[in-house]
User: Fold this.
Amino acid sequence: MAELSERVHPAARGFDSGAEAYERGRPDYPPSALAHLAAGLHLGPGVELLELASGTGKLTRGLLPFGVHVVAVEPSAGMRETFRRTVPGVTVQDGTAEAIPRPDASADAVVVGQAFHWFRPGPSLREIRRVLRPRGRLGLVWNRRDESVPWVVRFGRILHDSRPPGTPDSKDVVWQTAFDGSSGFAPLESATFVFEHEESVDQVIDRAVSVSYIAVQPPDIRAGIAARIRSFLVEDPDTAGRPTVRFPYQTEVYLTQRTD
Assistant:
């Protein structure tokens, strides 16, 4: 199989070395969003669920209580190693959304957390349609920082200073245009859920350095970004003097179905 560098966007290669920081610093998905996703995908005992770009298993762990059988696919070896530690007993395979290592019509539903904006929409939707059974369902979900909160805006600006031009962003609507009626999927239905994740200062820093285009940087640059985050948390009136902060998020869930 081709090297990771040949199969994913250059900025996404940071996930390989940043898996442990990702696991420590990223929030789990809120129960309300998981329930909505499970209902929309008709998850339950006997359902075959394929998870693409499964990362360290945060979404997997949230969906397993619904009784589904999960097979995960993840291109990053670092992420797969952490996944196997945090989700023992669930199969995780090397692969991408554009070349899914699963048979035709083998899944009742497919789910993607934090990742569809990294995919090449045309090839990935053709592959997802191939592995889904007739009328199979697709769910996409993102935990996004709530940038209506001033200190979170400042946090985001520090990250943005290191963002290479052209790096995919889930907030861009480009990925949504793939569901234009010719993709073999029904129009997207969406819902948003609001929550807060309590984090220590170290977890907020892990949240920052686990961002793909920062994780891929040399150690001295990552250390400099971490120092900027720590300094601003000490100085900002909304976070100063607090051992933990309540990091606000909005979880966006998108649902669609294979058309036949």
Summary: The longest strand covers residues 132-145. The longest helix spans residues 219-235. DSSP finds eleven helices and seven strands in the chain.
